[in-house]
Design goal:
It comes from Mustela putorius furo (European domestic ferret). With about 300 residues, the protein is α+β, with helices and mostly antiparallel strands. The chain contains 2 helices and 21 strands. Strand 6 and strand 7 form a beta hairpin. Helix 1 packs antiparallel against helix 2.
């Protein structure tokens, strides 16, 4: 009985520690910006941060320093905080992260969000060679030129909110792409910049048309055309809902562990009560047996005296 009770108590202690450990693990929030990560100078931008449904406070950090603090709002199943920047300037362009608090714990920081302010310098020109209409399998180069010297150029394909390609140069750089496929079709723009977060006006768009070469189906984009997409709102929602489902599952698992722990504690108490009852019963039986023996002894003694 004692060994069983000890094992139950150790198991309860283990489960309690497991629950306590799981409470410390808060999934990191998701951060994104609207209307985009590129904001023209003087235009507003909204930064959204989404944590678990239990989040009660959000903090936004800019370049590693606390920038804004906000309480969340419920949007269906989503728990979201919105931070508003009324006018984008070079002073508000940079890297943002957010965290949230649930009960007394703070989450890990979100992935970084790099906000860029545009329309600060002259307008570059963008051209494509050998031309805007090519056949899949050909090599293509975009040339971005800026009359006033800069030190960095960015090339973006519209419609994907991409993390842009970049090249270093003074007045002109080349962005080689190829062999191209139909996946490279689209509209491109380029920007000049003196740093990662302050860009020029965008160039005029250049539309690349790629016709299929049915004689070769093995073509694929090279590393020169690898774009790392930023999350758009739909992808953020999907990812956030997955994290919330995971958080809900964790919450359910913690509740189940608490129920199991409570059941084990109840079993342990019942074992203690049963052991105490058995001990009292045995003590009472011993006392009753001793009393009966004493009565019989007195009866025999009295009988001898009467004889």
């Amino acid at each position: 009985m004692t060994s069983t009770l000890t094992a139950l108590l150790y198991l309860g202690l283990f489960l309690s520690q497991t629950v306590s450990t799981e409470k410390q693990n808060l999934s990191k929030p998701i951060i994104w910006a609207k209307p985009d990560f590129m904001i023209p100078k003087g235009k507003q931008v909204r930064i959204f941060c989404q944590g678990t449904p239990e989040a009660v406070k959000y903090q936004l950090y800019f370049e590693g320093h606390l920038f804004l603090q906000q309480s969340p709002k419920q949007h269906g199943r989503r728990n979201i905080a919105m931070f508003h920047i009324p006018a984008m300037t070079p002073l508000t362009a940079g890297q943002y992260k957010c965290i949230y608090r649930s009960k007394k714990l703070w989450s890990n920081p979100s992935d970084p969000l790099d906000l860029v302010v545009t329309e600060l310098y002259d307008t570059p020109t963008l051209s494509v060679h050998p031309g805007p209409e090519v056949t899949s399998g050909e090599n293509v180069s975009f040339y971005c030129r800026l009359g006033t010297a800069t030190n960095k150029f960015f090339l973006l394909k519209e419609g994907r909110s991409p993390h842009p390609q970049h090249r270093y140069g003074n007045t002109q750089v080349e962005f080689p792409i190829g062999p191209v496929t139909t996946a490279h079709r689209g509209t491109y723009r380029c920007f000049g910049s003196y740093n990662n977060h302050a860009w020029s006006f965008p160039s005029e768009p250049v539309k690349l048309q790629v016709t299929e070469d049915f004689g070769d189906t093995s073509l694929a984009p090279t590393e020169h055309t690898s774009f790392s997409d930023y999350w758009d709102l739909d992808l953020v929602t999907t990812e956030a809902e997955f994290q919330q489902d995971l958080a809900s599952w964790d919450h359910t698992a913690q509740n189940l562990l608490r129920i199991i722990l409570a059941f084990l504690v109840l079993v342990a108490l019942m074992c203690l009560l049963a052991e105490d009852w058995l001990w009292r019963k045995r003590a009472q039986e011993k006392a009753n047996g001793a009393s009966s023996q004493e009565c019989r002894r007195r009866f025999r003694t009295q009988r001898r005296l009467n004889e």
